[in-house]
Amino acid sequence: MLEITKPGDGLPLLIAGTSRIWPALVVTIAFTAVARYIRGVSRLGAVAGALVCFLLFTCAGPGAIVALLSVFVLAWVTTRFGSQRKQRLRIAEKQDGRSASQVLANLGVATGCVALYALLGKNVIFLLAAAASFSEAAADTVSSEVGQARNEKARLITTWKQVPAGIDGAVSLQGTLAGIVAATIVSVVCVLAGLLPWKWLGISVGSAVVGMVADSYLGASLQRRGMLNNDSVNFLSTFLSALVAFVIASA
Fold this sequence. Notes:
Elements: H1 10-17, H2 21-37, H3 43-60, H4 62-79, H5 83-88, H6 100-120, H7 125-150, E1 153-156, E2 162-164, E3 170-171, H8 173-192, H9 201-223, H10 230-250
Antiparallel strand pairs: 1-2, 1-3
């Protein structure tokens, strides 16, 4: 049975979390410095990333930082995969790294989940939701970057019409498979880091894949119509993944 604690039970956890402040500061400074040095994030992106890193460590401990690191590494590596080709097609990420809005759009939901974990006590279902959100963020980035690097053409997910790679809502077999692998890697990392038990691995991966597919549908429909931008699509997709995982585990 899932252990659900009363809201007031979160206070001891928060008090215990104060002992993590200094380690959290050290880890945050180190992680942010490296991320900025390798141009993984812009200057404002580094500020947003520092806030995310500090909250993750304070609320959920080192395991959350390990999960964050796995998402960052996968995103950084695949963003640079086939970079010359992406630049030629004008679909490459900015050379200065991801912006603050991109960082928060991809990691804001996971950060919120671990904050709820700290506030509401040892309700580990919030860690599952965070793991699913982390996994979706990695899956979405990897699927897009690999798909764009490996294909000149893709298929619009709503109509299956052939379109240029990099178009909002376009999908490819290579990109989709790469996204599933990325979701699996991050979910396994979350298990090994102690954020969730092995029995929830499938829920985390499956929820992340649902979010990845939803991201493409939102991109092909609402984003292409100008009703949403890329950051809002990413945020909604990570939120959906967390919500699906939460509902399945609660059933």
